[in-house]
Amino acid sequence: MNQEKLSLHDVLIRPIITEKALFLREQRKYVFEVNPLANKNLVKEAVEKLFNVKVEKVNIMNMKPKPKRRGWFEGRTKEWKKAIVTLKEGYTIKELEGEH
Questions:
Q1: Which residue range(s) make up the domain with 48?
Q2: pLDDT at position 100 over 60
Q3: Is residue 98 part of a domain?
Q4: In terms of C-beta density within 10 A (0-12 exposed, 13-18 middle, 19 or more buried), how is residue 75 classed?
Q5: pLDDT > 80? residue 3
Q6: Which residues make Cβ contacts (< 8 Å) with residue 34, sequence separation at least 6?
Q7: Engineered SS bond to 28: which of 20, 23, 87, 94, CB 3.0-4.6 Å?
């Protein structure tokens, strides 16, 4: 699947709910796992249309896999892409506010 064929629902995979992500919400920043093919423009468009908000800035990071062991078996976690979306003043994502 190439970048042009990604629908808005394919761009955002899931919200990241961690202690650090919850602290970022006080600064109007929301953290999502996004499709590895997505770029900043696609993430901005998807968040604005799916949650009806205005996005100020998008930061994207590639998360590298970490080595893991379970007894004899060695492996790695998956490689994934993370986006931190900063909303404009006065906007919140109400669907995500009730999760904590």
A1: 3-90
A2: no
A3: no
A4: exposed
A5: no
A6: 11, 12, 13, 43, 60, 81, 82, 83
A7: 87
- Could you give the CA distance from residue 39 to residue 36 in angstroms, rounded to a whole number? 8
pLDDT tens digits, one per residue of 35-68: 999 999 999 999 999 999 999 999 999 999 999 9
> How many domains does one find in the chain?
1
Helix (H) or strand (E) holding 24: helix 19-24
**Structural domain includes residue 22:** yes
The phi-psi region of residue 71 (left if phi > 0; otherwise alpha if psi is between -120 and 50; otherwise beta) is: left
97 located within any domain: no
pLDDT of 13 higher than 60: yes
CATH assignment at residue 30: 3.30.70.330
Residue 9 lies in a domain: yes
d(CA 84, CA 60): 6
Average per-residue pLDDT for the chain: 93
